[in-house]
Every structure is written in C-alpha cells, then in structure tokens.
Specification:
This protein has 352 residues and is an alpha/beta fold. The chain is 46% helix and 16% strand. It has a six-stranded parallel sheet, with helices on both faces.
Length: 352
C-alpha cells in the first residue's frame, strides 16, 4: 500500500463538532494515518446568539490548533462551511493545502452553500472536495472545484465489545431519532414480526415518548452506546438495518455493517442500491416492505452472509484505488501542479 504522502509532510484533520458528529472523518483520518485529528466544539445551547458565540470560539481554537500543528496538508469536515472558511483563511497566509471532507448535509441544506460566491471560492481553492456520490461531485465541479467520489472508507475495529441479545434472530437498527429515519414504519414492521428482535440505537432523550411507549416487547431501545458497545451490538446482531427517507444520503451504519461482515437492510435509493449491491435487502420505507425485507433476508440468510463478505473485498479494492488517487492529487498540489483529469477518470472508475 502506498504510504500517505512523504514522511516529512505533516497532515492534520479538523472537525467542528464532537466525535459523535464525525465518524466518517475519524475513519478517514485513521485509514490515511493522520494522528492529528482535532474535534473543535462547544457545549453551548443552539440558537442564533449562541451560534455566533460558538462559531467565534471554534474559529479561535481552530487557528490556535493550525498554528501549533503547522501542517502542510489540512483536512476539514463540512458542514459547517464556517470550518472550511477558517481553514481557507489560514491556508492563504501559510501556504497550507487543504482538502474538504464533505458529508451529505453539506449539499442537502442550502445554507451550507450560501452565499454561492463563497462556496465557489472555497471549493476552487481546495486541493479537492471528497464527496459521497456523483450528484454532489457535479455540484462541486459546476462551481469550478475539484471533487473525488469516495462512497465509503472500509475499516477494521480495534475494540468490539460483547452485546447480550435475547432473540433467535436479532436486528440492530442504526438510529438517531433524526427526521429522515422512518422509525414509525420500522416499529410497524416489528409489530408483525414477534419472533424477530429489534435493537434501536440513539439517545432516548431525543426520542418522542409516545413512540417508545407503544413499542412492543420485541423492540429494545439501547439509549446512548459507547463505541465499544455500539460496534459490539452490530457485530452480535444477525443483520443491521439503516433506513433513510432522504435520497443521495450515504448510510454510515450500513458501511460499518459491511466492514463487520453483517448483512444489511437499507432503503431503496439508487446510491444505496449501487454501493450495497450484494448481501443487502433494499426496501421501501413502509412497514409492509420493511417486514418483507426482514423475512426475505432471514429466509435466505446464508446467501446474504456469503455475499456481504464478497462485497467487502470489492469495496476494499475500490477504496484503495480512491486512496491512491487522493494521495496523488495532494502530492501534485504540494509540487505546484494539478491532476484534475486523472481524478475525473478515477471518479468514473477508470483508475489503472
């Protein structure tokens, strides 16, 4: 495997938010060998006034970290776009090169691309913007920037705990009580599958009380789990369910299930069908179809187990190709040149 840059090149990673808000960036940093991963966040309340204070404090802390690290290459997670703006401002005065790790929300909420002139300025000055699908790649390229599609970063887990399960067939439901998660429909399916147990993650403080109260005995709300407990649950379950009502949204929980070799049930969107093309049941976000998907997976479980392991190998190869292309792109930027055409070919799957 090609090492990440030259040993004399120092890299850092900035995430505005707690570790729970940047699992993809955490994995990306680890797989690239970047140890200087910094989570910059404040525990102030939400709201316009507190946001002004919070972002100001985060900006000051970000500049302090960057001056201390003196990295030649800085990765920065987006959203929020203010984090990218801070790294850009630092880069302008320090000859630093920066890469944007853009998550789905960076493109799905208009305010992270507003004002448009600023969005164009940031993506045009980044070495590249890492995105999760071709639609977001097109947005960056139309703004004059460079983009690399990295749908997932396969990884291994250093510590996986044990999680006690009670059912004959157990499904881990990756959930945060977010608006795009069809939890009501999942519970509706669970009500008709009494012999299947569903373990629903997520802080109960964020859960609608009525939703929790009407769940049947085969639904278990785990409340907040540490990383060790969370990965233990995924590893112990027979399958992992990750659903979203929002198109063009990569499912981090499904990526984690793939890395653990667990069959997946996910939503029937094009992005998810394309990436999770084996070992996976794709369902509509309705109680009836979720129920159908669970029955289909359980009735042919050995096949799905075999397929998910084959998909593991294929997606690991894809990641290695993208990793090589990313490293080459950064090296070219450090040397004062660009490699936009090779990167475009890599996004189209033409890496040699």
């Amino acid at each position: 495997m090609k090492p990440f840059l030259n040993s004399s090149v120092k890299a850092a990673f900035i995430v505005w938010g707690p570790p729970s808000h940047g699992p993809r960036s955490k994995v990306l940093a680890r797989e690239l060998g970047i140890s200087a991963l910094h989570y910059v966040y404040s525990n102030t309340r939400r709201g316009l006034v507190s946001a002004l204070y919070r972002y100001s404090a985060q900006a000051v802390e970000t500049f302090r970290i960057l001056r201390r690290e003196r990295a030649q290459v800085v990765f920065v997670q987006s959203p929020p776009s203010f984090a990218v703006l801070c790294v850009f401002a630092y880069a302008r005065t320090s000859r630093t090169h920066f890469v944007v790790d853009a998550h789905s929300a960076a493109f799905q909420y208009w305010f992270w691309m507003w004002p448009r002139w600023l969005f164009r300025l940031l993506v045009r000055n980044a070495v590249t913007t890492i995105v999760t699908n071709p639609r977001f790649e097109m947005i960056v390229r139309e703004a004059g920037g460079d983009a690399l599609v990295v749908r997932d970063i396969p990884t291994s887990f250093e510590r996986v705990g044990e999680y006690a399960l009670t059912g004959d067939f157990n499904i881990a439901v990756v959930n945060t009580f977010a608006p795009d998660e069809p939890l009501t429909e999942i519970l509706g399916a669970a009500a008709e599958l009494s012999d299947v147990h569903f373990y629903v993650t997520g802080k109960l403080a964020n859960a609608p009380p009525s939703l929790v109260e009407r769940a049947l005995a085969n639904v278990h709300f785990t409340d907040f789990l540490s990383d060790v407990e969370y990965y233990g649950l995924l590893a112990s379950a027979d399958a992992v369910m990750c659903l979203t009502t929002r198109d063009n949204t990569m499912q981090r929980g499904a990526c984690e299930a793939l890395s653990l070799g667990k069959p997946i049930i996910t939503s029937n969107w094009g992005l998810l069908r394309d990436y999770f093309r084996q070992g996976t049941v794709h369902v509509e976000n309705t109680a009836n179809d979720i129920r159908r998907g669970v029955i289909a997976l359980r009735s042919d479980y050995p096949r799905y187990e075999t397929e998910i392991l084959a998909l593991q190998d294929a997606q690991q190869n894809e990641w290695q190709e993208k990793r090589e292309c990313l490293i080459t792109r950064i090296e070219a930027s450090l040397n004062g040149s660009t490699l936009r055409e090779p990167l475009a070919r890599a996004n189209a799957g033409e890496v040699s």
